[in-house]
Amino acid sequence: MIESLLVANRGEIARRVIRTARRLGIRTVAVYSEADADLPFVREADDATPIGSPNPVQSYRNPEVILNAAKSAGVAAIHPGYGFLSENADFARSVAENGLIWVGPSADAIAAMGDKIQARNLMADAGVPVAPGTREPAPDLDAALKAAEAVGYPIMVKAAAGGGGMGMAVAADPEALAVEYEKVRGFAERMFGDGSVLLERYFPRVRHIEVQILGLNDGTVVALGERECSVQRRNQKVLEETPSPALSAAQRAEILAAAVNAGRAVGYRNAGTVECLFDPESGKAYFLEMNTRLQVEHPITEAVFGVDLVEEQLRIASGLAPTFGSAVPAPSGHAIELRVNAEDPKRFLPGPGAITAWVEPTGEGVRVDAGYGPGNVVTPHYDSLMAKLIVHAGSRDAAVERARQAVAGFEIAGPKCNLPFFTELFDNAEFLSGDYDTGIVGRMRAKPKK
């Protein structure tokens, strides 16, 4: 097993990795910006190294700064968490070239999946179902209009290098496409340094389902169930659950098999997630993208499968077999994760501030992965995620009720907070039925017609 580890991240995911590493006897080193000096992850690590400015480009997203910190600390490995440098193929390659262990997939796998068009084509060639769309970037508006005519409207306009719901727009007709194409291309150039644009069929009613995979050292790729991620605002997830209430046993088996094939197609090692769009009308799933890292919502998979995915990551990176041997554990019960964000519960606009009260819920089947605590300050420099509230119970109904009670018992004061949104969601008939899609939050927020 790896003996020492630098956690190249912050907040709740840094605490999460440190917690497992400590249990395994691994020495941990945290890195932190000036804005994060007082956060819990800094004091919970065995050692901590300041890396400068709150601006992530100068600290958490700066490969040279992270590598220098790792060398100075004398660690054996780097765990990137999610976001920041976690899907930066050049950084993963640099880590290996500097004699350190990268806790993640190979740089080649990251690069292959990092470009949405290349990933789509690779998956299609491997027999993984993909939605109708372009095999090459649309270099200009004329090419985009011709491609859209062939694929059909409405159409999704996507930044090929985007992720996390950023760089996406929908066009219902050629006039709208002319506007959205230029918007997405300009956004992609500013945010990702790559203005390549992908066009893909837009499904008006769709569910977002993803599969947790592990690529093992013997070349095997296994799937640890799926997660339903359709409760979203601005194309970004706010609640996830597993198993998905949308799938039949046959559909589940088909989606898991496709995800395993996707992992095999790139020789995948370590933890990753295959994201799919599921069309409830046809019952078909289409490959969306592969996230070559640990997901924010990984705890619900841990709850139902009884595994520690960070431990599995560390074991794979160390050249070891998984804890569960050759037999994937059977899932048990139902789990839900709520992303507790510093944002208002109506319009979901960020509302950072000093935390004056913080009381976490407790009890059977309740887990809180938090990046903050009382007295900390949520700054505007980073994502608004303050904590993840995870519940696990024997059935979906029981899990929803446990989540409802846990939300009522979670007290946060100071920053704005979206906990009231979840109280509202758990009274929503569409959500309670399990028959919902990615438009559910929009319908909840739609103004009533006069």
Present the secondary structure layout.
Layout: E1 4-7, H1 11-23, E2 27-32, H2 40-44, E3 47-50, H3 63-73, E4 77-79, H4 89-97, E5 101-102, H5 107-114, H6 116-125, H7 141-151, E6 155-159, E7 168-171, H8 174-192, E8 197-201, E9 207-215, E10 221-233, E11 236-242, H9 249-265, E12 270-279, E13 284-291, H10 298-305, H11 309-317, E14 334-341, E15 353-354, E16 357-359, E17 366-370, E18 377-378, E19 385-393, H12 396-408, E20 411-413, H13 419-425, H14 429-433, H15 440-445
Parallel strand pairs: 1-2, 1-4, 2-3, 4-5
Antiparallel strand pairs: 6-7, 6-8, 9-10, 9-12, 10-11, 11-14, 12-13, 14-19, 15-18, 16-20, 17-19
Helix pairs in contact: 4-5, 7-8
Q: What is the beta-strand fraction? A: 15-25%
Find the count of extended strands (DSSP E, 2+ residues): 20
> Can you list the strand order of the major beta sheet?
13-12-9-10-11-14-19-17
Low-pLDDT windows of residues:
none
Radius of gyration: 21 Å
Report the span from N to C terminus: 64 Å
Morphology: globular
Please state the average pLDDT score: 95
Helix count from the secondary structure assignment? 15
Instruction: State the helicity in percent bands.
Output: 25-40%
How would you classify the helix and strand content by structural class? alpha+beta
Please describe the biggest sheet, giving its number of strands, its sense, and whether it closes into a barrel. 8 strands, antiparallel
